[in-house]
Amino acid sequence: LRLIANRWLRAAGILLLLVAIPAGYFLGKKAYRPAVVQTPGVAYNEITVPPGERSEIALADGSKIWINAGSKLRFPDRFNAGSRDVWLDGEAYFEINHDKTRPFFVHTSDLNVKVYGTKFNLKAYSQEDIIEATLVEGRVSLETKNAISNKVEEVFLKPNHKAVYLKKETQMISSELI
Q: Other C-beta atoms within 10 Å of 126: how many?
């Protein structure tokens, strides 16, 4: 009787593993699907990329974004007539289509990036002490608020330049890449 019970327990354990492993895989992949966040009048998508993975999306305007591991990107289903805004917590590479009538903004925890049709990388994890922007081609500006004057300061990057924003010091450092 004990021998039969042990065989049944082994068979049940093996069956449980055969079901649990594929189920865990597919539930983990669910993180790639945009989650719709409802805001009055606008529907937003939010993509969270798990550690060890990357994701690529195409926005409604044809721009493309490659999102790195451990990052979160929030964006509207369609952009309004005035501007194109996305929110990033993490790292992403952007290829943004130029549109004079609707500027493109990437909002992070401590600064905004204004994009003028370009290719650039932005590393802005909210839990880290720095934000890094590297411009490949085109033009971007980094907008921060001066803690003393409370005025918005704008730093422009040239192609092959990198800017590092030190959060604690509220200081921007820019340099040319070698």
A: 13
Contact 122/92 with Cβ under 8 angstroms? yes
Task: Mark 57-93 as b/e (b = at least 16 C-beta within 10 Å).
Answer: bebeeebebbbbebbbbbbbeebeeeebbbbbbbbbb
Instruction: Report whether 20 contacts 53 (CB < 8 A).
Output: no
Predicted confidence (pLDDT) per residue in 26-37, tens digit:
444 433 334 444
β-pairing, 35-39 with 112-115?
unpaired
pTM of the complete model:
0.74
Rounded to whole angstroms, the Cα distance separating 80 from 130 reads 31
CB 100 within 8 A of CB 116: no
H/E run at residue 80: none
At 72 the three-state DSSP class reads strand
